[in-house]
Design a protein that fits this description.
This protein has 195 residues and is an alpha+beta fold. The chain has one domain (2-193): Tgt2/MlaC (Nuclear Transport Factor 2, Chain: A). The protein is built from 8 helices and 5 strands. The chain has helices at residues 2-9, 26-41, 47-57, 64-72, 74-79, 82-103, 165-177, 182-193; strands spanning 111-119, 125-132, 137-146, 153-160, 163-164. The chain has a 5-stranded antiparallel β-sheet. β4 (153-160) and β5 (163-164) form a beta hairpin. The chain is globular, with a radius of gyration of 17 Å. Mean pLDDT is 86; it is low at 1-18.
Length: 195
């Protein structure tokens, strides 16, 4: 079941440029975007075609630099060069996009209920949603931050039943960094992305 809901959870893993939402428009803006994703998922087209279309639609809502930084961990992020940060962020985005596209076929006509925006940690906001399938409902919460301190809100993480995409990746990367250098970690991500 967890794999099934990954389809919509990983909607939060698709972009490079950022087009923020205003605070009062977070729920309505996300409602429009996710409903558009559901329409694409219902089409009788190839997985690759669906993936490209959804990535195009969701191309603007996420702060991938912050997501990469949080996933790698502050200590490691502060130790690497700007070029390494850029390369890691690029490979991290590729990793997330590929994971999303691989899960598209798991979609099975689930519906999304929107439960409102609430204050979250350290002045951030969380859009609460529920993915409703046959007999089962899962909470999927999108975490936003004011990306430029001028009221432009971007997603920096998604929580699925209490487990975050960022924290899951951080745990994975931290485990690898116990036995690998940063360059070795980066190379392993590249190899996985190119398989």
């Amino acid at each position: 079941m967890k794999k099934t809901i990954t389809v919509l959870t990983l909607v939060a893993t698709l972009s490079t440029p950022a087009l923020a939402l205003k605070k009062d428009n977070i729920e309505a803006g996300m409602h429009t975007k996710i409903d558009s994703v559901l329409v694409v998922l219902a089409k009788k087209t190839s997985t690759a075609t669906k993936g490209r279309e959804i990535i195009s639609m969701m191309d603007s809502l996420f702060d991938y630099t912050l997501m990469a930084k949080l996933a790698l961990g502050q200590d490691t992020w502060n130790k690497i060069t700007p070029a390494q940060k850029s390369e890691f962020t690029k490979e991290f985005i590729t990793k997330l996009k590929q994971s999303y596209v691989e899960k598209l076929e798991l979609y099975n006509n689930q519906k999304v209920a929107y439960k409102g925006v609430a204050p979250y940690q350290k002045g951030r906001l969380q859009l609460k949603t529920e993915l409703i399938g046959k007999g089962e409902t899962y909470k999927i919460n999108y975490n936003f931050h004011d990306s430029d301190k001028n009221g432009d809100w971007l997603i920096y993480d998604v929580d699925l039943a209490g487990v975050s995409i960022v924290q899951s990746n951080r745990k994975q990367f931290a485990g690898q960094l116990k036995t690998k250098s940063f360059d070795q970690l980066l190379e392993s991500i590249k190899l996985a992305n190119n398989r």
